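Weekly puzzle thread! Below is a chain. First person to post its structure in token form gets bragging rights.
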Amino acid sequence: MVIEAVSTPLQMKLETMTTLIGYIGMTVAILTAVSLIVNIFLIHHGKSVGKFLIEALLISVTIIVVAVPEGLPLAVTISLGVIITNLLFYTF
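Winning reply:
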């Protein structure tokens, strides 16, 4: 006998919100990398930019790594807040 796992509405909302937060983190990281790389080429005119390119990429990766774990508690808080607000309107 096979029992299929069913996601609760809260789990579905959390999955949606964490995915959205991940996409936002990736977008911010890409925009940061592009702006830093453009800034490096404008300031240094393409001379000895290797060190600065590595720093720009490290900053972008750091943003991605930090955005995902920090986004999960945010997603839980927002989801629970929305659920409690809905419960208030249903009870009154």
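Puzzle host: Confirmed. Bonus trivia for everyone else. The chain has one domain: 9-91.
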